[in-house]
Amino acid sequence: MTRAVWRYVSHTIRQAPEGGATYEAFCVAAGCGAESGAHDEQEGPQDWALRHAGRTGHGLFRRVCTDHARVTRET
């Protein structure tokens, strides 16, 4: 009979600043589907949403911020 030995090692996950972040906004008004596109700074999608709301009267947007994470083994 074979026996296995399991060794559990703790890890930590944190934001990796060197990976940067991407910001986007999406109009969720019925049938619209407009989006800001990806930007490196959140002001781009925010400005786009304000202009889009002013032109169309749409007032609800989904905002997405995507970043990178690094997992490190704790010693």
Automatic annotation (TrEMBL):
Quote the InterPro entries the UniProt record gives: DUF7848
Could you identify this protein by its name? DUF7848 domain-containing protein
List the top taxonomic levels of the source.
Bacteria, Bacillati, Actinomycetota, Actinomycetes, Kitasatosporales
Please name the source species: Streptomyces yangpuensis
Boundaries of each DUF7848 domain copy?
1-74
